[in-house]
Fold these 2 entries.
Entry 1:
Amino acid sequence: MTQLKIYDFMGIRKYAVVLSVLLLGLSVWSLSSQGLVLGLDFSGGTQIEVGYEQPADVSELREKLEDAGFENPVVVHFGSDTDVLIRLQGEPDEKIAEQIVQVLQSEGQSIDLRRVDFVGPQIGEELREDGGLGMLTALVVVMFYVAIRFQLKFSIGAVLALTHDVIITLGIFSLARLEFDLTVLAAVLAVVGYSLNDTIVVSDRIRENFRKIRKASPVEVINESLSQTLWRTINTSVTTMLVLLALFFIGGELIHNFAIALMIGVGIGTYSSIYVAATVMLALNVDREDLIEAVEGELVDDLP
Amino acid sequence: MLNKFPLWKNLLILCVVSFGFIYSAPNFYPADAAVQISGQSGSMVIDESVLAKVESALNEANIEHFSGEADGESALVRITDKKLQLRAKDVIQAEMGGDYIVALNLAPTTPEWLSSLGGTPMKLGLDLSGGVHFLLEVDLDSAVIVRLEGDLQDIKASLREERVRYRSFDLKGTQIVGQFRDIEQVTKAKSIIRTNYRDLQIQSIPGQNPLSMVLNLSDVASSLLEDNALKQNLTSLRNRVNELGVSEPLVSRQGKNRIVVELPGIQDTAEAKRIIGKTANLEFRLESQGKGGERFAFRNPRGQGPDAMLEKKAVITGENVTDARASFDENGRPQVNITLDSKGGWQMGHATRDNIGRRLGVLFIEYKTKLEKSVDEYGEMVIAPVAFVEKHIISLATVQAQLGKQFRITGLDGQRESSELALLLRAGALAAPMYIVEERTIGPSLGADNIEMGIKSVTFGMAFVLLFMVVIYRAFGLAANVALVMNLLLLVAFMSLLGATLTLPGIAGIVLTVGMAVDANVLIFSRIREERKSGATVQSAISAGYDRAFVSILDANITTLIVALILFIIGSGPVQGFAVTLSIGILTSMFTSIVMTRGLVNAVVGGRKIEKLWI
């Protein structure tokens, strides 16, 4: 039986810190300077999706709508060049969709009204507040759970890793000017769940090894734990990525950004569960002593 | 050592597997396109004779149909060709006339033995079935104002009766403000109001002018009023929605002052919006004589001039209307025949008895919103909806005789207007105006596309993962794959049984569950490999792998469950759908990936002495 290869993950943790700080800095800069491109769910307004039989010329349609008196209509292709999405910030008149269809239909092409969304500004504002609140609640509850199940230093490590993942995922959405809507919010919360999953599994192994391996430095224990869980981390990321790729390519335009957010999140989450959580724990001087109390209090853990 | 499951565990697995198969099965029978016929009022009997009429109309139009059924309350006919469903509806509506509600429907084809076990297919969310979703906000302040307006008139009258002199009594916002000339009158007025108007609170503000009096509605009274207003609006909306002929509409309260309306499968969205979105009321007011009164414009300024003065006080409002039907008068002009309730009839009779020869106006009140830009206290530009009311006179006619419970409105613009007005009157007045704050319309073609793409991505995602697991974990990968497929069946079974609604984000949740459900098996198998590497025997490696991985799996899944729960609490419609599938998926996957794979592994290799593990 060959012995498991131990990788020196923590040896390069200084570079990881630099990388994370860079990514975080860039994300925070982008989020504070240009913010997120808020989707209709959060910004409010009216959005209409129409399907043409032939490929549609977007700029021509825009001119047509402007001529018809609509102010600053945003007209883009949606998914394919026969699908067009029209966004208006104007008054949520109940007739607006009918009017637009009339304007577009005057060309003589037959069009299919696929979707009309109107979200009032107060709803958008409420959703923004609820979304932020939900994110914070999730982080606080998770911190408590991990602090109880493990130990405070683990909990700080896990929550910092989660915050790291969320900020960078949002930052990439802001940098790439991708639209942030309700489904993306759900994806970011799912990223929290996923990344947490990873971090917990790694932390669990670190805890176990601290108790088992008596004569080793914390860095050695963490390196061994990370090496032991490495294949599991990679395999789970791969299976999740596989289904996300299926969603991205086949799932349709409405969950495109959902899939993107999750793919970014799963990537960052895998990285953070190896580097961020463990580095934070080391920075907090995690040691065997931290877990001795826990060992006595949690004998239950060793039973199936 | 050997790995064996006790009999009860194997039986448990067997039970869960059969549960999964039975309750997910109804989803694999595609629904039939159907048309449902019911009556405008509950007293109408929809029996075999109605069904026969419907079927012969369909035969005449060459629309193939089958297994028609009628149960006295409604009839259902299934249409062979889905594309003809819409035409079938029109054909039936034309044949049956306006007294019947004809609605498009999707009839489940669940076999009888399955339905007798309680099996039903999953409900499809609006983003999959197509339809309209509205979120309406009820303006409760204006219900309070209407109430206070009434109180104000009554107070003035009773003060006059008791000979209490006041300088003025007015409504300011949601408060009634009175001004007096001397303290004695104030005291008298206060005692009258305290005894006769218990719902009103007299405010005492320190340093307030002793000669003025501020009244507002007590908290108890106003919350009761608001509650009633919302309930009445709900009822009115339900009535209106029923008029639209939708097979499974949803009208429900959300929070303190909002109402959700969901109309699945609606094809003519413009019509739905016109009826739901229109928030209107009627007031019958006498034309004012000389001084006092309000000036209103005509809705159709033809012949009668641009505007007219009406009295401030309404004789009756739309609330008193019990029935309204559009018809034509002797000259073929459109009219609406109105029936009032007894209170309304009495008030109408009382008001018109002494006023024959005067003109009675019908005031049509519409509540609308527009977006207005303004600058807030921080100097930022904000766009906020501003509610406004439009009041127009739709008819002003001379009272020819004392009016009673039944009379008619003439002078309407056309048949469309008369039938719309009749519908709005019949569906009931709103106790407080409502504004649309969110609206989503999903066309039927998009819904069908979403289902197709959803099924495709589940299939492909699943296939990738199945392949990956076999490549990496070989025989054990197969066990994990059986568990994964079973997990999907169980997820569908639970969602069907709980009556959960499947939405597009819900499908995304299923796909994600597929990807993440194997995590538990990856953990277990990696652990078994490790144990083998460190020299454990086959059987003890299996046992230790499952046992040691269990704690990690439990912790990881509980934390994910916490996140899903939070998602459910803060999220609205589609996000909740995602949270529900994710939560159920976590629970079912714990069972399938731990208990079920262990059962499989035990059955195949657990009872034998083997040297090599194919993992």
Entry 2:
Amino acid sequence: MDIIATLSSGYGFWNPVMWLIAAAVSLLVVYLFWLRGEKSYKKGTAQGQPFIGGNVAKEKGALHIRAGNLYWGYTESLKGYYRWVVPLHTGVLNDYVLWFLGVMAFLLVVVVVL
Amino acid sequence: MKLTKSFNKSLWAFHFNSGSCNGCEIEIVAAITPRYDPERFGIKLVGSPKHADVLIVTGPVVKKMKPRLLSVYEQIPDPKIVMCVGTCGTSGATFYDSYNLDGPVDDVIPVDVYVPGCPPRPEAIIHGVVKALVKLERIEGGGI
């Protein structure tokens, strides 16, 4: 059958049956690890929180490097632009529709009247 | 995660300073030196409460440290033992009526073993750890 045929690219190969076997073995290993875990662990308590010297754990973004840090130089160099644009993105749909209508009205004036 | 049953008798302790003057800390560190070498019995200090069986608390629990002590106590998996080292943690000592205290320790979390002294000698701390070990075995065996 074509569906279980081995696809060879010259550099490697792909076989769905082998992939399924590898996935099943991986899941089995993960399950065995999970099975040997500490059973007295209490969900929803401080035991689920990271240990930071007893301090209350902050939200993840405050502890880890945010994605935004990766392009810090970009936003820093364009901060004049961002300072103007970011407050406009209020997250309120009504605002966005008003902007849409405003821009449409402006284009109408530009295209039809002028 | 328990690897084998032989690890049941290894007692791992987490040390928490709730406002101590460091006198007790010096004695705790002295207790784990090669002179006494409790590590040959599997007794050692660990860096995270999540790995600990025993919480060793020093100091009289100042207000700033109370929520942190509660958090650390909660993060230790059951069954757990709390050991109070030093007179400050036991009674508040000189600071018993200070405006800045939420302690002593047993006003904040339940304490199983008290090691009095200002500071207690390493022999007394090790004796307390042995008492903790006995109590932990009783709890694990359903004796309490």
